[in-house]
Amino acid sequence: MNRLIRSFGHAIEGIVYTVKTQRNMQIHIGAALLVLFMGWLLQISWSDVLLVFFSIFLVFILEMVNTAIEATVDLVTGEFHPLAKTAKDVAAGAVLLAAILAVIVGFYVFLEPLLVLLN
Ligand SMILES: Nc1ncnc2c1ncn2[C@@H]1O[C@H](COP(=O)(O)OP(=O)(O)OP(=O)(O)O)[C@@H](O)[C@H]1O
Description:
The chain is an all-alpha fold.
């Protein structure tokens, strides 16, 4: 049980580290809070809330994996290496893809209620 609690503590440390040190993560959190507030204002359906949560968490998760890969690469080498570049670029690309998906979901969920509100 103690081991389980310790693992949980390490996981929380990882989340806190990412939020504290990664500017992109802070931007993702700001954007997520804004989107959730908009969802509340526009009274989007529960299934759309779920969709929004999935996209938000996907971006958070990949930003954390990206941070882990960056730390690992920096641990292994401080020198310029084509494989280090590949590892970091691919990880960053994964975050970008998740962010694009989040924008697509945003359009799908918010476009209609926004148009209704504006009319
Ligand atoms: N050791 C290295 N060898 C080769 N290229 C590298 C190396 N370290 C970084 N790069 C290149 O520089 C880019 C930026 O790397 P860096 O470690 O500064 O990430 P970052 O800009 O802090 O990323 P993020 O904004 O996601 O935190 C990488 O995507 C990669 O193209």
